[in-house]
Each structure stands twice: as C-alpha cells, then as structure tokens.
Design a protein that fits this description.
With 259 residues, the chain is of the alpha/beta class. The protein has ten helices and nine strands. The protein has helices at residues 16-24, 64-79, 88-96, 120-126, 178-187, 189-194, 204-208, 211-231, 235-242, 251-258; strands at 4-8, 29-33, 49-52, 83-86, 101-116, 131-142, 149-154, 161-164, 167-170. It has a nine-stranded mixed beta sheet with strand order 2-1-3-4-9-8-7-5-6. The longest helix has 21 residues, at 211-231. It is globular and about 45 Å long.
C-alpha cells in the first residue's frame, strides 16, 4: 500500500488523533510539514490518499505552497485518490472542485453543535446521530461544490461538511487532541480575547471545560469517519473494518497491506 500524504501547516494543528489512528491500524503515511520548510508534493500517484489539515492562512492568499497543494488535490481528483480536508483542507478541496471560499459572517471558535443532513451519504460518513458536537476554529467558509452533497450544517456556518464520492471536506476538526487544543488556546489567546464579544466564539475556559470528555466523544466520531475514508482507499481495508476483528488482531490483513 502506498502511503497517505498528510499536509501540515501549523505545528499545533498537526495530524494528532488521525496520526494515532493510522498507526493503530498500521497504515503507512508521510507528513509534509509545510510550516517547517517541507514542500508539498505535486503528484498524487505516489500516494493512496491525501489529507490536508488546518492553517492560519486562507486558501485565497495566493501563497506558493497553497497553489502547489491545490495542484496536488486536482491531481488526486483526476486519479481518484481519496481526499480528506480538515477546516482549511476542506476549503481547499472545495476550491479545487470549483467551489468558492469566502469570509464567514462570523468567526466560529470552540465547541458547537452541527446537524447531519438526511442524505444517504451523510449517514454513511457521520453515522446515525442527527446532532454532533464538534470542534471549530475558522473565519472562512466554503461553498458546497457542484455534484457534492452537504453532510453537515450549523447555526453560525451553514456549510460544515460535504462529500463527493470518496472525498470529504469538513469545516471543523476531528484530529485535535486535548493537548493540541490547550496549546492552540495558549498560542492564540489574543485571538480569543479579541473576539469575545461574538456569541460564536467561546472563551478559553469554555473551550477547556470538560475537555477530556468532549475530546473522547469527538474521537469516537473520528473513528467512524476515518474508517469510512480509508475504506475508499483499499478493498483490503474495507474487509478489515467491516468484518469482526480478532481479539488480538492478526497478521493476515497486515501482510495484505504490504503487497
């Protein structure tokens, strides 16, 4: 199995729980740390799928690395390599599919409820719950691209997620951990204070209240979403995630992944 390409743009917005999930299931990956000087790949043929994480930059900023990542996503779309976008990554996926990305009416920062739409694709990606509590930190919003289905919507931002075949764009974060959220709040404390007048922006105390419990619930959702996304990459993975697991695992499916 070829590795999954993961594009990271900020040290505190790393792959987090996604990385732990991939390692748990022995899925190969490669992190491109753009913030540390790595150059995003251009060719998607070298990878089984592409993940784009969050960023303090905007997709319309015209930076060279953003243009290169957009070219990577367009190549992945051409080759039908599944794409998973978190926040900035969801915006860049939308843009790569011809959608518009613009400033949201209000910034949204903190924990907030989103609703799952009634499309079959939404239940497949998000499970049977109609309401989910997710973590948000964004100022922009994406348009649902032509041909895609809106999977999630929220009160402060209408388009919180969309799906198109094996590709999923999210205007939220599944990959965060309790540690990364604490670090994010500490690093961007001034931003939180600047926007405290907005009802869509929680205080640091509100974000950190019962943090471990909220993150644990978020990771249960992430398990489901990441499994669905990986099943779009490999039939071997589909068989693994859809069949009863042995109590202590087994080498059979791991060996198949290496072929």
């Amino acid at each position: 199995m070829k590795p999954i390409a993961i594009c990271r743009h900020e040290a505190i917005q790393g792959p987090g729980y996604l990385q732990a999930f991939l390692e748990k299931h022995a899925i190969p990956y490669r992190v491109f740390a753009i913030d540390a000087g790595d150059t995003p790949p251009r060719c998607a043929a070298e990878f089984s799928g592409v993940v784009v994480l969050g960023s303090n930059a905007g997709v319309n900023d015209g930076l060279a690395w953003i243009q290169r990542e957009e070219a990577l996503l367009k190549d992945a779309l051409r080759l039908e390599r599944p794409i998973l976008g978190h926040c900035f990554g969801g915006q860049l996926l939308s843009k790569s599919l011809g959608g518009q990305v613009r400033r949201n009416v209000v910034p949204q920062i903190g924990w907030g409820k989103v609703l799952v739409t009634k499309f079959d694709e939404s239940r497949q990606w998000m499970g049977e719950k109609r309401e989910l509590d997710m973590f948000h930190w964004h100022f922009d919003t994406f348009e649902v691209p032509r041909g895609a289905k809106r999977t999630l919507f929220g009160y402060y931002c209408m388009n919180k997620g969309f799906a198109l075949g094996p590709h999923l764009g999210l205007q939220s974060h599944l990959e965060v951990t309790a540690q990364s959220i604490r670090q994010w709040c500490a690093e961007d404390r001034q931003v939180l204070q600047q926007w405290q007048g907005q009802s869509s922006v929680q205080s640091e105390a509100q974000i950190l209240h019962h943090l471990d419990e909220k993150v644990a619930a978020l990771h249960q959702l992430a398990d489901h979403v990441y499994e669905q996304w990986l099943c779009g990459i490999s039939g071997v993975l589909h068989a693994h995630f859809r069949q009863p697991k042995r109590p202590h695992g087994g080498a059979g499916w791991l060996e198949a992944l290496k072929r």
